Amino acid sequence: LTGLPALNRLVASLGRLPGVGRRSAERMAQKLIGGGDLIDELVNALQQVRDTVTGCSRCGAATSVNENPCRFCTSGVRDETLVCVVEDPADIPLIESSGGFKGRYHALMGRLAPSRGEGPASLRVASLIERVRAEGIREVLLALGTDVEGEATSSYVCERLQGLPVRISRLAYGLPAGSAVRFSDPLTLARAIKGRQPLS
Ligand SMILES: [Zn+2]
């Protein structure tokens, strides 16, 4: 602690952001108070985002406050029977940039991480079930991580959807594009073999 309450408060706030530890928060704060126009730029950007951007009330994607539900939820050309479930709304632009998905989205806003005290209560699963019931969704595609927490989250969501008239799928495991088999780790390779695709 610095003896400067305003600075301590800034460090504490920055430390609440994902992926920012105590040390990084302190370095960010030092950079901000180091002069220059970065701090003004940040204040302006924060205010503008707070006033104009929000999370979609339906899927959680970032959207304009004037367009809620978002363009993914209201688009007439997207497949409304297919919903892709992601951990974080920040994953949505990545999936969009692949060009390979034309359904709708649902962000869980987290993952199961008991070690960090993140249990099922913080996940948006009840609203997913509600959407499956109300929106005529026929397939739920789980696009969650392949690490232990991602797998646990997938299993949990899958379990909660049991009994509903919906097909549950997940992203295929595979090798990263442009990489050679010899650079793959054994687990990735084992999963890629299990998920092999027929060529003829
Ligand atoms: Zn939406």
Explain how this protein is built.
The chain has 200 residues and is an alpha/beta fold. It has helices spanning 5-14, 22-33, 38-52, 71-74, 91-98, 126-134, 148-161, 186-194; strands at 53-55, 62-64, 82-86, 104-107, 139-142, 167-170. A four-stranded parallel beta sheet has the order 4-3-5-6, covered by helices on one side. A hairpin with a 6-residue loop joins strand 1 and strand 2 (62-64). The N and C termini lie far apart (65 Å). Residues 56, 58-59, 61, 69-70, 72-73 line the site of zinc ion.
Overview features:
200 residues, alpha/beta, 4-stranded parallel β-sheet, two-stranded antiparallel ribbon, 8 helices, 6 strands, 40% helix, globular, binds zinc ion
Quote the beta fraction: 5-15%
Q: What strand line-up does the widest sheet have?
A: 4-3-5-6
Q: Please state the average pLDDT score.
A: 92
Which runs of at least 5 residues are low in confidence (pLDDT < 50)?
none
Estimate the global geometry from the Cα principal axes: globular
Q: How far do the termini sit from each other?
A: 65 Å
Q: How many strand units?
A: 6
Element layout with pairings:
Layout: H1 5-14, H2 22-33, H3 38-52, E1 53-55, E2 62-64, H4 71-74, E3 82-86, H5 91-98, E4 104-107, H6 126-134, E5 139-142, H7 148-161, E6 167-170, H8 186-194
Parallel strand pairs: 3-4, 3-5, 5-6
Antiparallel strand pairs: 1-2
The structure holds zinc ion.
Summarize the structure.
With 200 residues, the chain is of the alpha/beta class.
